[in-house]
Amino acid sequence: MAVVPQTARPEGRSSSSFWTVARRDSLAGFLFIAPQLIGITLFVLIPLCLVFWYSLHEWNVLANTFSYTGATNYQMLLEDPNLPSVLGATAVFSAGLVIFNLSLALLLAVLLNQKLAGITIFRTLFFSPVVVSLVAWTIVWGFLLQKNGGINGVLLVFGIEGPNWLREPVTAMISVIVVQVFKNVGLNMILFLAALQGVPNELYEAARIDGAPRFKQFRRITLPLISPTILLTSIITIVGSLQVFAQIAVLTQGGPGLTTTVLVYYLYQQAFQFHFFGYGSTLSIMLFAIVVVLTFAQWQMRKRIVFYES
Amino acid sequence: MNYHRTLKSAVAALAVAVPLGLSPLAGGIANAQDAVNLRMTIWSANEAHLKLFNDIAAGFKKDHPNVAVTYESLPFETYTTALTTQIAGGNAPDMAWIFETAAYDFVNSGALFPLTDTLKATKGYNAEELSATAAERWTKDGKLYAYPFSTSPFAMFVNNDIIKAAGAKTPAEMIAAGQWTWENAIATASAVGKVPGKGGLIVRDFNYQTWQNLASVWNGWGASPWSADGKTCTMAEKPMVDALTFIHQAAFKNKAMPGPGESVDFFAGNAAMTITQISRASLLPKDKPFAWDLVPLPKGPAGDYALIGQAGVGVMQAGKNAKTAAEFVAYMTNPENSAKLSQFFPSARKSLLNAEVLKKTNPLLSQEQIDKVVISGIATGKVIPGHTGFAQIQQAVRSGLDAVWRPEANIPAALQQICGQIGPLLKR
Question: Tell me, what's the ipTM?
Answer without folding.
Answer: 0.81
